[in-house]
Amino acid sequence: MADGRDVEARVEVLALEAELPVVKRIAPSTDLSTVDPSVTYVLSDGTVGSYDLDKWEVAAEDQAKLAIPGSRILVKGISGDDEIAATFVVAEGQADGPVVPTVTVADQTVEGLSTDHPVLYHKLAYGTALPEVKALAENAQVTVIQANEANGMRASIYVQPNDGGALQTYAIRFLQEAPQIEGLSLEVENADALKEDQTVGIKVFAHYQDGTQAVLKADKVTFSTTGEGDVAVRKGMLELHKPGQVTLKAQFEGAEGHIDLNIQANTESKVVKAIRPVSVVTGLNQEPSLPDTVTVEYDKGFPKVHKVTWQAVAKEDLAKYHSFDVLGKVEGLENEAHAKVSVEGIIAVEEVTTTTPVSEAPQLPESVRTYHSNGQVSSAKVTWDAIDPSQYAQEGSFTVTGHVEGTQLPTKLHVRVSAQTETGANISDQWTGSELPLAFASDSNSSDSVANVNDKLISYNNQPANRWTNWNRTSEASVGILFGDSGILSKRSVDNLNVAFHEDHGVGAPKSYVIEYYIGTDVPTVPKNPSFVASEDHVFNDANNWKQVTNIKAPDQVRAGEMTHFSFDKVNTYAVRIRMVRPDGKWGTSITEIQIFSKQVAAAKKAQAQIQVDGKDLPNFNPGLTDYYLEAKEDQAPTVTASVSDNGIATVIPSVREGDPVRVVVKAENGDVLGEYRLHFKVTSDC
Predict the structure, then answer these.
(1) pLDDT tens-digit profile of 199-240?
(2) What confidence tens digit (pLDDT) does each residue in 40-63 have?
(3) What does the DSSP assignment read for 2-48?
(4) Inter-CA distances, 481 with 444, 488, 498, 518, 639, Å
(5) Which of 11, 132, 331, 538 has the highest CB neighbour number within 10 Å of its CB?
(6) Could you tell me the pTM of the whole model?
């Protein structure tokens, strides 16, 4: 009590959970008084702290080892009357890179832990006990502090490399999920006196694992019924549509509940006000799928569902694109039901054009434009016939037939093959939302990810530090690109590689290099860790799967700080890499960006169209005039065709309704619309 007031204080009692292994890396002949005296410990709440020892003591027989590189010496750390055991590692230079442990949670291996992602989150179902975390690491001592309530449900993993490298900390943070719904219950207003055509209140209760309950919004719940009666839930109310016994079932987030109801019949006299019309769509010469029931509206109460029997549909009504009515006999009523049947379908499919360099397979579009009888313009998937490589082995033109989904009408791809090319897109850049194209490296410094080499950011300095390196790693390393087209693994035709090397005090452009392309028979997969492919079982690690490019053209000496351009004979491959030896006097090689460009044939932007009617040129055709008025014989539709120069295309869209024109859409090779022409035919009895 202070000044007449009660004061409460919260006291937390913390205990020493563990002292972490002590391994110190020292240079040969280091004075013991200069060795870092700190010892790291962990408290029961997960807090990490340290204290300094008074001194280090080395046994007399081990004194000489302090001057010998490679020695491992067991030493004592003295703090007052206490002693701790430690290890000194006598070595020159820097320690190896970070050590990532292998971690299991409840004996299940955890994926994704790395120096870039040292903390992983693990969800636990409500009420589940905290699982045991285990960890192992090569050439390192591992200490695991298990998760508990006191340390925020965080299992901490401390890795002390045996070479005296820096202590690394990883963690598994457990997140307990909220209580889940175990079941539902339903409550209906006046449940003992329900009558057809009434609207009554309804509540759905969710019952949770922790014993609590909550009322759910009815529009978030899924309802279904079984039984003779029928009900519906609308706007949070229960509508009683049909008398009889009915079971109303509710479902929400996997939980279920139900209630049994008995609905008495409404014996009031009712008058039919309307039978709701039916509309269906069918294809050419296809029997329409008419419903077995129709909905009848009355002067009182809810609409009712009645069975219906439809008249037979004549075959001639399905033989053309139009709409017509079908009558139906409604069970129990004198009134007739009406159904509007619309015969619709694809009436024209656009042909397409493309260009490709000699010896490169053309890109095949996945879909083509379709024109429908109802005036809609859409697209449909297309399957193309196989292409023989001889068709694009030399300059010229050829066509490929395509089979369009949803129609018997074919399409064609008009391909122009040319040796006249220009630089196209960068096919090595990362693709948003996909792993491919993917940059990969045999080995890397853990701080310099290989993903930096195809992220469209070139930086020759530390503003920002955006590069791949193998600093302080192996003397030889390779960096490459695994290709993808629109995010899908695929071969690409390649005849160039452009590399922006970076240099600082520790890394630089390679001393020597070899450019290779993948020739393996197995389709390569995406590496598990693209920055360290050499550490896994992957086809990229088999030297027999790579072949050196030929007729390479390159500068006499590669330099850092600028883009270095390499060109070579064209190859068709899944991947390209540059294998490099680090420069003399440096600790590694460094690349800030790789670029690989496709070659493309420029598509023509202009073309001349010619339209024919029944095999004869359209009289007085003028590309600037869009509408033409012609005469046609009765019951004899004229045939309209069109041709376009310079690999352009024309799509003829027939008329399906009386008075509609025949349309001709003309496009240039590059896809630009050059014009749309409308041919209006006036039917005469004698032309």
Answers:
(1) 999 999 999 999 999 999 999 999 999 999 999 999 999 999
(2) 999 988 888 999 999 999 999 999
(3) BTTB----------EEEEPP-EEEE-TT--GGGS--EEEEEETTS-E
(4) 15, 14, 12, 10, 53
(5) 538
(6) 0.61
